[in-house]
Design a protein that fits this description.
Number of strands: 11
Order of helices and strands: EHEEHEHEEHEEEEEHH
Structural class: alpha/beta
Largest sheet: 11 strands, mixed
């Protein structure tokens, strides 16, 4: 997979390193000469250019990329890069960094963004996830389809504890994708049972989140009555 990253700062270089370790081709783009540090990520391609300019993106051959990551520290730049990548070059997957949470509402398909990653929101979500049981925590937003990656730790008193996955009537537009049980990561099958303390990860439509939380958190005594 070929990935272009706009922004060769600490965030961009870190992403590049991870992708290279997983066997992907990576191109780092930055307009600041001081950011071009080939020795820090020597396996990557480097381009000194303004990623907001069509001529620069032509030089980067963005049409050959499977993914573009807009990872600069400037939200305006990240939006422009995302829009150009999607509309001018038809890049299948565009991921954009959100620096200011107040701008998060802009990072959607109208600007060519498939996945928006807000570091402040993600950090707060991880804090909530660590201390919350029975509460739905939104971890990541996907622009297409208005879907989110959400997590809930199944409480001891949940009526679903001990129930098989295939026996649960899940809300429409939701999908259970992973069960984290202690140190194990399980791909759920219909025969798997839900256990109290399981961390459940779903991809769910935003409109279904409240319904999903109610289903998972309902108490046994309430369900019996």
């Amino acid at each position: 997979m070929r990935v272009a990253i706009a922004g060769a700062g600490a965030v961009g270089r870190s992403i590049a390193g991870e992708l290279l370790e997983n066997g992907h081709e990576v191109l780092l783009i930055d307009k600041a000469p001081t950011a071009i540090s080939v020795e820090r990520v020597p396996q990557a391609e480097w381009l000194l250019a303004d990623a907001c300019e069509i001529t620069s993106l032509d030089e980067a051959a963005l049409q050959r990329c499977n993914v573009v990551i807009a990872a600069t520290g400037d939200d305006k730049v990240n939006l422009v890069v995302s829009l150009l990548a999607k509309t001018e070059y038809g890049v299948p997957r565009v991921v954009a960094r959100v620096n200011n949470p107040k701008n998060e509402w802009l990072f959607n398909e109208s600007w060519g963004v498939d996945v928006a990653v807000s570091t402040p929101r993600l950090m707060s979500a991880l804090v909530e996830e660590a201390v919350s049981v029975g509460d739905l925590v939104r971890l990541l937003r996907f622009s297409h389809g208005d879907a989110n990656l959400v997590e809930l730790t199944l409480p001891e008193e949940s009526a679903l504890a001990g129930t098989q996955v295939g026996d649960v009537e899940w809300p429409q537009d939701t999908s259970l994708v992973t069960i984290i049980r202690g140190t194990r990561v399980l791909t759920p099958s219909r025969e798997d049972s839900l256990e109290a303390g399981d961390e459940l990860l779903f991809v769910a439509a935003q409109a279904r989140e409240e319904q999903l939380e109610d289903l998972l958190s309902v108490r046994r005594d309430s369900a019996a009555s």
